[in-house]
Specification:
mainly alpha
């Protein structure tokens, strides 16, 4: 009885970790995107 329950808990945990990983990637992508936009903005301001 312990085996299947433990296995099920592991799968739930792995899905939760996958969701966290995806959220972390989205967060990093957003931060880098904003930073890139700022750099491009400064660059365009220097040209203008």
């Amino acid at each position: 009885m312990v085996g299947p329950a433990l296995l099920q808990g592991f799968f739930v945990l792995s899905e939760f970790e996958q969701a966290l990983h995806v959220l972390k990637l989205c967060f990093l992508f957003a931060v880098y995107g904003l930073h890139l936009l700022q750099v491009i903005g400064y660059f365009l301001n220097d040209i203008g």
